[in-house]
Amino acid sequence: MNYNFGERPLPGSPVQSGQTAEIGFWQNKHGQNLIKSLNGGPTSTQLANWVATTFPNMYGATSGPNNLIGKTNAEVAALFTALFKRTGQTSPGGPPKLDAQVLATALAVYVTNQTLAGTTAVAYGFLVTEYGVGAATYNVGGNGAAFGVASNVSISVLGLLLAVNDRTANGLLYDLDGSGTISDTERTLRTQANDVLAALNELGRI
Length: 206
Description:
Order of helices and strands: HHHHHHHEEHEEH
Largest sheet: 2 strands, antiparallel
Number of strands: 4
Number of helices: 9
Strand order of the largest sheet: 1-2
Radius of gyration: 16 Å
Strand content: under 5%
Oligomer: single chain
């Protein structure tokens, strides 16, 4: 009853075209409309609750800036817009688009999983399967440190997101010491994570 979670399948084949989208897609009218149309419409809270439950350090911290517990699809879309508009002056440190890249990846995991989101995303050009892009693998190249693995290792997309979640405190990505600020070391990890997730999202070509 009320099945709203994604099981963690074994890693599958590499990410392919149609499984992810650049952050610009989620910001434009098509991506915003897709977010708002999921699971019955803009007032549905199923997407937000799944994101907050699956990645609690990033989106489930009640004191965090990106808390999505109980939020609607319309509010998720608005949060993405706010993260997309971050600049070097408003970013906590490192690449200003990292938070948008992370949320874009989480959205791709959700909309390509037929159990979670049905087939709504097919009309927008996404490849929807039983487990979606969450089970697909991606090679981290020389950026393994950002995800707690060796360089040039392929791990699942869901695994990438869970690794970022494990390195997040109160919604601040890569705040390893929980200080509420980003140190030089943490900034380096944020840069590495951004490099991986930006390339991953661009691979989808939607």
